[in-house]
Amino acid sequence: MLRNALGITFRFLGYTVQYGCIAHCAFEYLGGIVVCSGPSMEPTIQNSDIVFSENLSRHFYCIRKGDIVIVKSPNDPKSNICKRVIGLEGDKVCTSNPSDFLKSHSYVPKGHVWLEGDNLRNSTDSRCYGPVPYALIRGRVCFKIWPLNDFGFLRASPNGHRFLDD
């Protein structure tokens, strides 16, 4: 009886570890579901919207200008942020706020990206903390899951004029 109970217990623990490892690999390398909070990506992503983020793009260096990404916060490594990629390494970006009279520009250094929220007036982004290391990117947002009336691929940036092609 005891032998049978131990066998069942170890079998259960073995399956738990096995499926836990599979789940970890799936969420780490394939993607996952993310709940976004805050106003920085409005109107594209509202507070409490749920999105699907895939992680393969970051591993294969397929992140492009205009992509919305989930990134480890440069200010707080325990939290993630959701922002749009405005510039890749070597790109010239506008580093000033939209309300600034004089516009300043800079180049994104090697191994970094420039991130901004779609809601430029209410976003803490690269204009505050500078270029973000590519290694902090966790995944690329593919589409919105919730709310259901907004289900589907995400719309283009309302700030397309901020993408410089120089």
Give an account of the 3D structure:
- The mean pLDDT is 84.
- Helices cover 22% and strands 29% of the residues.
- The chain has one domain: Ribbon (Umud Fragment, subunit A).
- With 166 residues, the chain is an alpha+beta fold.
- The termini are far apart.
- Its main location: mitochondrion.
- It holds the Pfam family Peptidase_S26.
Features:
two-stranded antiparallel ribbon; elongated; Umud Fragment, subunit A; 166 residues; 3 helices; 29% strand; 10 strands
Q: TL;DR of this structure?
A:
Helices cover 22% and strands 29% of the residues.
- Secondary-structure content class: alpha+beta
Order of helices and strands: HEEHEEEEEHEEE
Instruction: Count the domains.
Output: 1
pLDDT < 50 runs, ≥5 residues: none
Helical stretch tally? 3
- CATH homologous superfamily heading: Umud Fragment, subunit A
What is the name of the CATH architecture?
Answer: Ribbon
CATH topology: Umud Fragment, subunit A
Question: Strand content of the residues, in percent?
Answer: 25-35%
Percent helix range: 10-25%
Rg is: 20 Å
CATH C-level? Mainly Beta
Anisotropy-based shape:
elongated
- Please state the average pLDDT score: 84
Q: Give the termini separation.
A: 76 Å
- How many strand elements? 10
Main pleated sheet: 8 strands, antiparallel
List the helices and strands and how they pair.
Layout: H1 2-30, E1 31-35, E2 50-54, H2 56-59, E3 68-72, E4 80-87, E5 92-94, E6 105-107, E7 112-116, H3 126-129, E8 132-133, E9 137-146, E10 152-153
Antiparallel strand pairs: 1-2, 2-9, 3-4, 3-9, 4-7, 5-6, 7-8, 9-10
